[in-house]
Write a structure and sequence with these properties.
alpha/beta, TIM Barrel, 2 domains, 8-stranded parallel beta sheet, two-stranded antiparallel ribbon, 10 strands, 14% strand, globular, binds flavin mononucleotide
Length: 352
């Protein structure tokens, strides 16, 4: 897939997620072969005035890997300044958030609120395009529309492209849906039909496995798929999709040993890259992610939440996986198991 002059080998993107797609998590996903990662949305205003917390989240991917930065706002001058900061740290792409449904964001007439004001949204795209070098594509991520009765994604996407956007991502829910209901592939298909052929469309919403990826591409004709929640504690999905999209066999889900190894890698990255009291919080979150869907995961999560420090949290997870691996051996279960299968296999056991 090409976004302007930028070539993306694997047509799978990690969705920007606030408080999730930090540098450690992006790194893990990149190591598993995701096509591109994007920072969480960053307030253009906060970046432009040098707010330390927001500037701390403006992070380049490691080892020179390409990455995108997502910004939000509605003041052209702040958006320009933020986009320049993104380029200064080496961003390959600047994405503008026009999909966030959060009250505090739409109260400021930013995020998905911009879908009700296409002319202002276009002004922002033009300002950001003018602020960055031509080699850095400006892209827009938005929703199906504001409400069920106002699903203007096809016209809105075309207006953003007319203003200079080089790629559109559509999450097939409306703002009023928030995260309820289902993402609608039909609106994504309508956007694909409306956009010029050379503009890539990224479909987003509810993809959690290889079958979901294939289905969304077939149903909508989208050029790539963006995955958010389905990647939490499941970065293997990107390795599986890299293989499948290259026409090779699906390597399947990870076994427990591999799951534990990636947990260790993720926590090593958190320890190396994060500072302060948030570090323990981040480690606790990742403990829960990598155990999600496995036998006894809820009990582990509660114990980890009480762990006084990172070493204690790590020890709990090591012990948990050691017991799980031993149990799997004792019960003669297959080493490779989908999470759903694992749930079913252990359902009776858990209840006992
Ligand atoms: C915790 C969380 C934080 C999110 N933060 C952002 C964000 O910063 N920028 C953005 O464009 N979308 C954000 N989203 C929306 C996701 O990028 C994505 O559009 C949505 O989750 C649907 O995709 P999924 O079903 O694959 O998760 C967030 C979603 C979640 C769950």
């Amino acid at each position: 897939m090409r976004i302007g002059d930028l070539a993306i080998d694997v047509p799978v993107l990690l969705a920007p997620m606030a408080a999730v797609t930090d540098l450690p998590f992006r790194t893990v996903c990149e190591e598993f072969g995701v096509g591109l990662t994007i920072t969480e949305f960053l307030s253009a205003h906060a970046l432009s005035i040098g707010d330390p917390k927001t500037c701390g989240k403006l992070t380049a991917s490691l080892d020179g890997r390409r990455f995108g930065v997502q910004i939000f706002g509605r003041e052209p001058a702040a958006m320009e300044a933020a986009a320049r900061l993104a380029v200064a740290i080496g961003a390959s792409l600047v994405d503008i958030n026009m999909g966030c449904p959060a009250k505090r964001v739409v109260a400021g007439e930013c995020g998905s609120a911009l879908m009700r004001e296409p002319a202002i949204a276009q002004e922002l795209v033009r300002a950001v395009v003018a602020a960055v070098p031509p080699s850095v594509p400006v892209t827009v991520k938005h929703r199906a529309g504001w409400t069920q009765d106002h699903r203007n994604a096809p016209e809105f996407a075309c207006a953003m492209v007319e203003a200079g956007a080089k790629m559109i991502t559509v999450h097939g829910r409306t703002r009023t849906q928030g995260f309820s209901g289902k993402s609608d592939p039909d609106i994504i298909r309508q956007v694909r039909d409306a956009l010029p052929a050379h503009i890539p469309l990224v479909g987003n919403g509810d993809v959690i496995d290889v079958a979901g990826y294939v289905r969304l591409r077939e149903q909508t004709g989208c050029d790539a798929v963006m995955i958010g929640r389905g990647a939490l504690g499941n970065p293997w999905l990107f390795a599986r999709l890299r293989e499948v999209t290259a026409g090779r066999p699906d390597p399947g889900p990870p076994g427990l040993v591999e799951r534990l190894a990636v947990f260790r890698r993720h926590v090593d990255l958190i320890e190396a890259l994060k500072r302060g009291p948030r570090m323990l919080h981040e480690v606790r979150k990742s403990c829960a992610w990598y155990a999600r869907g496995l036998y006894g995961c809820n009990a582990l999560r509660l114990r980890v939440w009480d762990a006084p420090d990172v070493a204690a949290a790590r020890a709990l997870v090591e012990d948990y996986f050691a017991q799980l691996i031993e149990r799997q051996r004792r019960l003669g279960l297959a080493p490779e198991s989908e999470r759903g299968d694992m749930d079913r296999e252990f359902a009776g056991d858990e209840a006992a």
